Amino acid sequence: MEQAITVDWIDRHREPKCAPNPSYPLGRDIDVSDGSDASCKTVVPYPANRCGVYVLRCSKCGMSAVVTTAGRVDDPRSVTLPCRLTKG
């Protein structure tokens, strides 16, 4: 299936001020689909350069999300979005 999700990173030009969460030494898989029957998962650049946000947009269904980053090992490495074209 063709990937329809674009990922843009907005740099907040700040370095992290606290230590990473040791529970996620290899990054986090973020799921904002809330149990939707249909969803799409995409990888994001990992780790981010520093504090900022990923803006994710699906060109097929119009779903969008914003996920924060800190430039640490506990940053997001993937994001799952629900599909707005289906009910569920």
Overview features:
88 residues; mainly beta; three-stranded antiparallel sheet; three-stranded mixed sheet; 6 strands; 0% helix
Q: Any overview of this molecule?
A:
With 88 residues, the protein is an all-beta fold. It is 0% helix and 47% strand. It has no helices and 6 strands. It has a 3-stranded antiparallel sheet, with no helix packed on it. A 3-stranded mixed sheet has the order 2-6-3, with no helix packed on it. Strand 4 (51-58) and strand 5 form a beta hairpin. The chain is globular, with a radius of gyration of 14 Å. The model has no long low-confidence stretch (mean pLDDT 92).
Strand percentage lies at over 45%
Distance N to C terminus: 20 Å
Considering DSSP H and I runs of 4 or more, what fraction of the residues is helical? under 10%
* Main pleated sheet: 3 strands, antiparallel
Shape: globular
Category by helix and strand content = mainly beta
User: What is the N-to-C order of secondary-structure elements (H for helix, E for strand)?
Assistant: EEEEEE
Question: What gyration radius follows from the Cα positions, in whole Å?
Answer: 14 Å
Average pLDDT figure: 92
Based on the structure, what is the oligomeric state of the protein chains? Answer: single chain
The number of E-state strands comes to: 6
**Contiguous runs where pLDDT drops below 50 for at least 5 residues:** none
How many helices in DSSP terms? Answer: 0
Strand order, largest beta sheet: 1-4-5
